[in-house]
């Protein structure tokens, strides 16, 4: 991959310019819908009966990432197994964002846009 961009990025051409067709808007809408769905499931399963401690929720998100690391450490690990733990982390993030009214899809897409403008490796060696 060359400096400053990648190939085949969703909603972008090879130079990092926005493509037409509203692709990013569709992504934002789909993410909002997914946030509502995962939060609805979590509420239905009792995870939001009463208020939740924000630090605890963040720690549980972190625990899913630790579980992904543990999967990688297994001698017979599979990418599917790692992916399941990463999916759990994403589900917890989406659930938390919906519960707290965080406009995560908009923020996420703004961060992607910002990253397109950043220098190679963000100007760092590693």
Short note summarizing the structure:
This protein has 126 residues and is an all-alpha fold. The chain has one domain.
What secondary-structure arrangement, pairings included, does this model have?
Layout: H1 23-44, H2 54-73, H3 79-100, H4 104-117
Helix pairs in contact: 1-3, 1-4, 2-3
What does this structure look like?
This protein is an all-alpha fold. It has one domain. The chain contains four helices and no strands. The protein has helices at residues 23-44, 54-73, 79-100, 104-117. The radius of gyration is 17 Å and the shape is globular. Mean pLDDT is 88; it is low at 1-8.
The average pLDDT value, as a whole number, equals 88
Total beta strand runs:
0
Spans of at least 5 consecutive residues whose pLDDT stays below 50 are 1-8
Total number of distinct structural domains = 1
Along the chain, the helix and strand elements come as HHHH
Count every helix, treating DSSP H or I runs of 4 or more residues as helices.
4
| Amount of helix | 55-70%
Shape: globular
Please state the CA-atom Rg, rounded to the nearest Å.
17 Å
Q: CA-to-CA gap between the ends?
A: 16 Å
Largest sheet: none
Instruction: Assign the structural class, choosing from mainly alpha, mainly beta, alpha/beta, alpha+beta, or little secondary structure.
Output: mainly alpha
Beta-sheet strand percentage? Answer: under 5%
């Amino acid at each position: 991959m060359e400096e400053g961009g990648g190939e085949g990025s969703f909603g972008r051409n090879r130079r990092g310019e926005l493509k037409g067709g509203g692709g990013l808007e569709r992504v934002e809408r789909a993410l909002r819908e997914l946030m509502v769905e995962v939060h609805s499931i979590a509420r239905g399963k009792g995870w939001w009966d009463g208020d939740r401690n924000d630090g605890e929720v963040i720690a549980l998100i972190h625990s899913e990432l630790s579980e992904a690391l543990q999967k990688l450490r297994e001698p017979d690990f599979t990418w599917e197994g790692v992916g399941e733990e990463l999916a759990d982390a994403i589900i917890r993030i989406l659930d938390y964002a919906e519960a707290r009214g965080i406009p995560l899809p908009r923020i996420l897409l703004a961060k992607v846009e910002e990253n397109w403008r950043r220098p190679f490796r963000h100007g760092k060696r590693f």
